[in-house]
Amino acid sequence: MKNGDGPGDDQKNGVGARLYVGNLPYTMTTDRLVEIFQEFGFPVRRPHIVTDRESGQSKGFGFVDLDTPDSADDAINALNGARVDGRTMRVDKAHEKR
């Protein structure tokens, strides 16, 4: 991960809020992740799906940046627990790596 790409770097980059998105299907793409958020009316900046370095396969989670903390709270309320491609998505505020 490059500087400025970690889950806790949202304040440094002037981003409203970074969300963790988990329990994603392993076939999830960044385009599909953006589409899901847009279907609920949330424009996404800097979507990122974490992948295995060797295989390139999704690890089943990722991060998205939203413009404001309020839009992040709304997205959590709307999307946490939503069913996507047969899986129950988990959406929460991202926490800085320890």
Report on this structure:
This protein has helices spanning 30-39, 69-79, and strands at 17-22, 45-51, 58-66, 83-84, 87-88, 90-93. By secondary structure, the protein is of the alpha+beta class. It has one domain (17-92): 2-Layer Sandwich (Alpha-Beta Plaits), CATH 3.30.70.330. The strands form 2 sheets. A 4-stranded antiparallel sheet has the order 2-3-1-6. A hairpin with a 6-residue loop joins strand 2 and strand 3 (58-66). It is globular and about 35 Å long. The two termini are 15 Å apart.
Question: Top keywords for this entry?
Answer:
about 100 residues; alpha+beta; Alpha-Beta Plaits; 2 helices; disordered N terminus
Structural class: alpha+beta
Question: How many β-strands, per DSSP?
Answer: 6
Which strand-content bin applies to the residues? 25-35%
Overall form: globular
Count the DSSP helices.
2
- Our measurement of the CA-to-CA distance between the termini, rounded to an integer number of angstroms, reads 15 Å
Q: Supply Rg.
A: 13 Å
Q: Which architecture would the CATH scheme give at its second level?
A: 2-Layer Sandwich
